[in-house]
Structures are given as C-alpha cells and as structure tokens.
Amino acid sequence: MKKILSLITATLVLSSCSSSPVKEEELFVSAASSLTEVMKKMEEEFLKVEPDIEMTVNYGSSSKLRSQIEQGAPADLFLSASQKDMDLLESKQLVNAESVKPFAENQLVLASVEEFPKNADFSDLILNPEATIAIGEPDSVPLGAYSKSALETLNLWKLLDGRLIYAKDARQVVTYVESGNAELGIIYSSDAAISREIAGILEVPGQTESIIYPGSVLADSKNQDAAKAFMDFVTGSQGQTILEEYGFLPAVGAVP
Predict the structure, then answer these.
(1) What CATH number has the domain spanning 108-203?
(2) Is 3.20.20.450 the CATH classification of the domain at 25-105+212-250?
(3) CA-to-CA distance for 41 and 240, rounded, in angstroms?
(4) Fewer CB atoms < 10 Å away: N or C end of the chain?
(5) Is 59 annotated as a binding residue?
(6) Tens digits of per-residue pLDDT, 24-48?
(7) Is residue 189 a known part of a binding site?
(8) Do 25-105+212-250 and 108-203 show the same overall fold?
(9) Torsion (CA) 69, 255, 105, 33 in degrees, nearest 10
(10) Residue 34 labelled as part of a binding site
(11) Which of 29, 17, 87, 86 is nearest to 56 (CA)?
C-alpha cells in the first residue's frame, strides 16, 4: 500500500511540475515608489509580449534603491525618479552608461482631500497655521528635495519650520493626505491624477528644475537582454501611452 501511495504522490508531483510554465529569464527591477501603480499596468502589458520573462519589482525612494544597488542588492534595471541618484550610480560605473535614458517627467502639486476655493493662492493655503503639511524627507527622498527647493525659491521654507510631516517616500506622502493625517501634501501630479480621494490640486510655483525619470540597465546584471527589452518597452510607444494614462509627462528623447 505504501508503495502505491508513494507512486501516486510522485506522479502528481511530476504532473504538477510539467503543467507549470517554466520562465526562461528572471528580471529584477528597482523602481521609484511614485511608479508603483503605473508599473503594475506596465508589467501586465509587457508580459503579454514577453511571456517567458518573470518579473520582480522592488519599490522605494530612489535614493534608498540607489543605496541598495551600491551595497550589491540584486537588480537588473533601475527606474529612478531622480537624475542625481542615476548620476551617482553612473559615476561608480554601476550602470551601463550607454543605456541611461529618460522615460518620463513629472510636476509638483499641492494636494488635499478637500477641494480648494476658486482662485486659491498657494502661499495662503500653505501658510494656514491650522493645516498640517506632508512632504518627502528632503535629504533622502527626491520628492522632498524638489519640494524644499520650490519652497525655498518662494521664501516659504523657513516659515514652515515645525509644521511639516516628513515621509519616507512619495507614496507615503500621498497616504498621509488620503488618510487625513495631513491636511495638505506636496506630491507628484501623477499621484494626484490617479488618486480617488484627492479633490484639491494646485500646481506648486517656484519649480526651477525639471523632474526627470531616467532608467538604466545595471552593469552587473545577469539578465541584460530582459532588462533591455523592458526598458525598450517603457520608452516605446506602448509604454509611453501607459505612462501618459497614469498622469506622467513624456520625456524628451524617450521614444526610440
């Protein structure tokens, strides 16, 4: 009897193994947290074209992902919300310089779950002493650095001392606003475009630099072909259309 049960078990295991599709390549992508929602759609459409590739995506702030890559974390492709972090990896020859390419741009907006009054003034809203304001951590999150730069240009940064809540990445700023833990938040326009809770959106003045998203294949990637194929998809016409649907702006030179 035991021999018969063992034979059945072995047969089921072999049957299960033979019916499971075998992925020929694994692709590890490190992507900025502000790409979380669009990447789900991007991955879904890409795997229709490349069904033999298995993808794993690791999200975080671009500076945190860059630090992980510097410490040897497994990754084949880096999709950053910060040109600065990409430049740092390139200076250490950790990415293939010839593969670095911009694939999207973004803007800053002031967001709230409440609609803003018509003709609302940015400075009046943000200087309201009763409003709590969430932004990204300026020293470690690109969104925070962009926010601080804009507020400094407007001479508002020092006036907000003690009134800001700092988030670990762009997605956490959105969560603070959507959950009501902060009345206001400075977020990317792409996150505002897809949020069901955010009703008030006002462009942040004082932005002096473009928010460019660059991507690159990592120099030590063991899956160079898969990484290049996905990067080509992101910068191609289908990928650019998906990015636009999720509120991103096209980057100059993105479409090959």
Answers:
(1) 3.40.190.10
(2) no
(3) 12
(4) N
(5) no
(6) 789 999 999 999 999 999 999 999 9
(7) no
(8) yes
(9) -40
(10) yes
(11) 29
